[in-house]
């Protein structure tokens, strides 16, 4: 293997390839993660859900109707079902009803074919990746490129999966341990929208944790009434007891009309990093006038928007377009 001391360390401000480079490849495929790495992302982001036999795989949701060809598999027709998860009722196919071997017979496809028609060229070319495969890719590419490439896993619906006997926390920590990454200085952040999930992880591992937040509602485990409550100085102090940072929505930092909040200062005051989500070329929060859908000619405006947030003091960010995010970070 490569001498770690010869590897370029992580930059101070990190670029997280959201679902890989999901602006350019079907999300949560090894193709998408590889593309993010090739474009210079520091981290690749798998959203994690379990299989029936307890493996961890990367999908944004456990519902896989829109991101795989499962509907075209007659042998799985009777697995179609309706579930209510975290208040949302969904009809379709779900990862927890398939063994890993069964899931591996499916092929991934683009979730947003109208918005990202170019990505459909890769439909059918990739399987659903396991966390093991993603860790192996990050390690292999770190060695090849002589720079540290990390993973930034999110535990999805952790209370729900615990309630059906497939808790995510122990499985994730076991995988990190096996990879030699169950350490405070590992190139890993674990993120979750749920508070109790992160508190549980805090008791199990030294890996840095990120509390995700959204502009509205509250965490699914009802630990707080709202994420707004969590974003107050008192709420942030409570988060700092178990987490290294927060993952707010962009609009919690700068409103759509351009008004900055005090969140960056308040989070930094209690030692929390800020890694907001999600910069994508198809939604310009600050500059709706430049919201241009799929026209690559105006994607450059995304760099301006990222620059505005970098000036506001963020410590890293999630983006579907590392092709834009990495140069924006490098020129800051
Ligand atoms: O993890 C940050 C961001 O990804 C949270 O939203 O829905 O894209 O997983 P989501
Ligand atoms: Ca995520």
Automatic annotation (TrEMBL):
EC number: 3.1.4.46
Domain GP-PDE span(s) in chain numbering: 13-329
Keywords, sorted A to Z: Glycerol metabolism, Hydrolase, Signal
GO cellular component, one term: periplasmic space
GO biological process: glycerol metabolic process; lipid metabolic process
Example of a GO MF term: glycerophosphodiester phosphodiesterase activity
SUPFAM superfamilies in UniProt: PLC-like phosphodiesterases
Reaction equations catalysed: a sn-glycero-3-phosphodiester + H2O = an alcohol + sn-glycerol 3-phosphate + H(+)
Highest taxon of the lineage: Bacteria
Family of this protein: Belongs to the glycerophosphoryl diester phosphodiesterase family.
Name this protein carries in UniProt: glycerophosphodiester phosphodiesterase
């Amino acid at each position: 293997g490569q001498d770690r001391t010869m590897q370029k360390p992580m930059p101070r401000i990190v670029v997280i390839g959201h679902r890989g480079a999901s602006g350019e490849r079907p999300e949560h495929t090894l193709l998408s993660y590889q593309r993010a790495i090739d474009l210079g992302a520091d981290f690749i982001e798998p959203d994690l859900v379990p299989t029936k036999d307890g493996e961890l795989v990367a999908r944004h949701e456990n519902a896989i109707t829109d991101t795989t060809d499962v509907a075209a598999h007659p042998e799985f027709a009777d697995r179609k079902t309706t579930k209510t998860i975290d208040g949302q009722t969904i009809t379709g196919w779900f990862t927890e009803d398939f063994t890993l071997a069964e899931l591996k017979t499916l092929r991934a496809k683009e979730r947003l074919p109208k918005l990202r028609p170019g990505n459909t060229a890769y439909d059918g070319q990739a399987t659903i990746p396991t966390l093991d495969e993603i860790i192996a890719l990050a390690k292999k590419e770190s060695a090849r490129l002589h720079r540290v490439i990390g993973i930034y896993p999110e535990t999805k619906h952790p209370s729900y999966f615990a309630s059906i006997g497939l808790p995510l926390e122990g499985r994730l920590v076991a995988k990190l341990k096996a990879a030699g990454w169950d350490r405070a200085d590992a190139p890993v952040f674990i993120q979750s929208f749920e508070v109790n999930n992160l508190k549980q992880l805090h008791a199990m591992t030294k890996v840095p944790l990120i509390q995700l937040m959204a502009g509205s509602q509250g965490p699914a485990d009802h630990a707080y009434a709202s994420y707004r409550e969590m974003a107050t100085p008192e709420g942030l102090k409570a988060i700092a007891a178990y987490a290294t940072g927060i993952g707010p929505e962009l609009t919690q930092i700068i409103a759509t009309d351009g008004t900055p909040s005090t969140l960056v200062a308040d989070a930094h005051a209690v030692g929390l990093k800020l890694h907001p989500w999600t910069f994508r070329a198809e939604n310009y929060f600050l500059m709706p006038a430049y919201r241009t859908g799929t026209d690559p000619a105006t994607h450059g405006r995304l760099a301006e928007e990222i620059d505005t947030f970098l000036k506001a003091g963020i410590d890293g960010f999630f983006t579907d377009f590392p092709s834009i995010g990495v140069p924006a970070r490098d020129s800051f």
